[in-house]
């Protein structure tokens, strides 16, 4: 492995055979517009949260991979990343504009050599949707309550709500014929215990008053649900909860936060 050459100037990126996009979903478009010239003959893999990023990348790059990564981290200072939890990464071809399988396996091999456990799959949708459902059910609730996923799982009211939202997401995955890599219910509890104090990305952004990636985390799945004709009334992020589900969530928040302001719609 050579020395990492970091730059903030896209023009300084040399022609490359492989690329990884790991920016927040709301800046995928400008990121790939700026860097696409480096990948004229290369393949680019998204390891971003949510869905819809690969479609944006495919507008500029002809060979695309879909990926998902479980390690949890946070920025401690510029150029300093603290790892809060380890996990597996999965990569596979993006069906509309797929990278060749040997390129997928090559990327997986390089990441494994670098110490990042990675599995190269012919179909990575199941892995991607497993994490998507975890984020779909937990991230907005963490942002609304200030709780970590581990704390959500400790409280019966929030854990019950997480389960309800997961059930809605599972119905969408089933309608699309996606075979999940793992059980999202188990993943919620496992990751909650393993990274009990980890603040998920959406909560980090809310606390820092930054724009969030609610679009790729939740609105993408809600759009898929609508296309399949599946209602998602309990979804607390990108959809429009029905009044009963909204009242349930607002009522819980009012009781949890202990103040009348929480009960205002």
Describe this structure in words.
The protein has helices at residues 28-35, 53-58, 101-113, 125-145, 149-154, 156-175, 184-194, 201-207, 214-228, 243-257; strands at 18-21, 43-46, 63-69, 72-77, 80-85, 89-93, 118-120. By secondary structure, the protein is α/β, with parallel strands linked by helices. It has two domains: 10-122, 3-Layer(aba) Sandwich (Rossmann fold), CATH 3.40.50.720; 126-263, Orthogonal Bundle (N-(1-d-carboxylethyl)-l-norvaline Dehydrogenase, domain 2). The strands form two sheets. A five-stranded mixed sheet has the order 1-2-3-6-7, sandwiched between helices. Strands 4-5 form a two-stranded antiparallel sheet. Helix 2 (53-58) links the parallel strand 2 (43-46) and strand 3. Helix 4 (125-145) runs parallel beside helix 8 (201-207), helix 4 crosses helix 9 and helix 6 packs across helix 9 (214-228). The longest helix is centred in the middle third of the chain and has 21 residues, at 125-145.
Note the main sheet: 5 strands, mixed
- Give me the CATH superfamily of the largest domain: N-(1-d-carboxylethyl)-l-norvaline Dehydrogenase, domain 2
Class per helix and strand makeup: alpha/beta
Radius of gyration: 19 Å
């Amino acid at each position: 492995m050579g020395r990492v050459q970091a730059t903030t100037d896209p023009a300084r990126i040399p022609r490359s055979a492989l690329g990884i996009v790991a920016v927040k979903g709301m800046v995928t478009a400008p990121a790939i517009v700026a860097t696409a010239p480096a990948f004229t003959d290369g393949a680019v893999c998204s390891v971003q949260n949510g869905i819809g990023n690969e479609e944006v990348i495919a507008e500029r790059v002809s060979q695309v991979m879909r990926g998902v990564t479980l390690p949890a981290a946070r920025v401690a200072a510029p150029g300093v990343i603290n790892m809060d939890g380890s996990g597996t990464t999965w990569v596979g071809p993006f069906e509309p504009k797929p990278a060749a399988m040997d390129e997928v396996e090559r990327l997986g091999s390089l990441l494994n050599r670098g110490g990042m456990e990675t599995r190269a799959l012919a179909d990575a949708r199941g892995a991607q949707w497993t994490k998507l459902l975890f984020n779909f059910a937990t991230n907005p609730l963490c942002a609304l309550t200030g709780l970590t996923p581990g704390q959500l799982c400790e409280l019966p009211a929030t854990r019950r709500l997480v389960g309800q939202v997961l059930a809605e997401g599972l119905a969408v995955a089933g309608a699309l014929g996606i075979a999940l890599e793992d059980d999202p219910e188990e993943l919620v509890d496992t990751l909650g215990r393993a990274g009990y104090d980890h603040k998920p990305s959406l909560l980090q952004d809310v606390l820092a008053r930054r724009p969030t990636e609610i679009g790729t985390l939740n609105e993408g799945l809600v759009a898929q649900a609508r296309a399949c004709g599946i209602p998602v009334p309990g979804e607390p992020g990108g959809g429009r909860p029905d009044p009963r589900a909204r009242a349930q969530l607002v009522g819980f928040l009012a009781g949890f936060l202990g103040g009348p302001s929480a009960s205002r719609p």
